[in-house]
Design brief:
Length: about 350
Amino acid sequence: MKKRTVKIGNLNIGGSSPVRIESMLKVPLSDLRACKEQIDQLWASGCELVRVAFPDISLVDALRQLTTYSPIPLMADIHFNFRLALAAIESGCPSIRLNPGNMGTSSELDNVVDLAKQNRVVIRIGANSGSLSRDILESSNGDAAKALVIAVEKQLELLLERDFQDIILSSKSTRLSDCLRSNYLLAQKYGDFPFHIGITESGPGIRGVVKSSCGLAFLLFQGIGDTLRVSLTDTPVSEVKTGFEILRTLGIRDHGPEIISCPTCGRKRADIQAIIKEFLPLIEELPDGFKFAVMGCEVNGPGEAKAADLGIAGTAGGLVIFRNGEVIADGQTDEMKTMLKKIIHSIHNDQKMGQ
Ligand code: SF4
């Protein structure tokens, strides 16, 4: 099925574009300085779309300023108020997230849709398990996945009957099976629309990362998902980094270098964690898709990490450095670390020259 493309600012979503990574500001729009700081951090992390809660009309000037400031396109998140939707569009915000069914009367929704058309604003619509109405749950016989599909369809119809097409669809649930099945069912019917995917409120730390990774992997492997957010009880930058790692692990998209490191065992001859910590700032500057390995011993390390472009492994006397599976230097730890830094710097320089 040919996928439509929508354009938010300069960002294409859907069609043949890569799966996009987005996040949401976790500070209020009333604190513009803090919002700008998070935008800066998100921009540095590679984030491509940022949602921002827009709960009050008094914040429209802040939204306007942030839209002008942000190098990343913004999406204003709006609940239950068509005036907020109109104000967000008038402020220059290139996309909004709302439920058309919550936008007041039919003519008030007409106004929102007309203004969105005039300004080429993209609208993300969707359903969330937390806000399903009793009617919809009853009409789906308590099947939450089907209820989510019905809820999305109702929203979609409201836009399509007004001939609005620049739409992103989403369906979310904290219950993984409902989230996955509703997206699957929606993709069968509306797979030509771009999909935003995410496992909502997936939790803190490792729990959230595992839950999101399992759910998103299932969807992405079926070709569902054009833009994703990893919802974590963590910083927005952690969400973005996790999103890119999920895409990298699935072989969908490279962002930054890959670190291959062994789990260590009784044969280890180097403190892997300390080496990774020391070299991480340098490693992170390596090109997209570059494979850097840190292995515990020289007997198995270079072999186990032969896919690596560059790596080190512990030895009885220090470290060995290997490139493309071949050992190129062997010596004491400090000497090898210095040599490794020089090699990484030369790769950085080559990268800059090639830009
Ligand atoms: S590379 Fe060496 S230390 Fe690391 S897991 Fe393999 S055998 Fe153990």
